[in-house]
Amino acid sequence: MKKTVRTVGFKAGERNVFLHILTGCNLSCSHCYINTEQHGTNMLEKQQMEDWIRLFADTKKRTNIIFLGGEPTRHPDLSAWCAAAPGANGY
Ligand code: SF4
Question: How many distinct structural domains can be found in the chain?
């Protein structure tokens, strides 16, 4: 089955929820909005994210959850949260 990858949609009737799940990053881009020395090591706790996913679960509205950082792929729970998000379809 062909998988469709979507970027952030700004469509009527949809909600976009941007969640910064950690501050750390392994890169140091010159255009970064966080100073390299200020990235820190803060990470969102597993229970907090699960509470937020439940909060935004609404079968009547499409909700696009966008995970941000720092570098969000460095969070050890990211793949589990993607799978657990309401209506998750694997991207
Ligand atoms: S958070 Fe993004 S912009 Fe900043 S250093 Fe990391 S990859 Fe670059």
Answer: 1
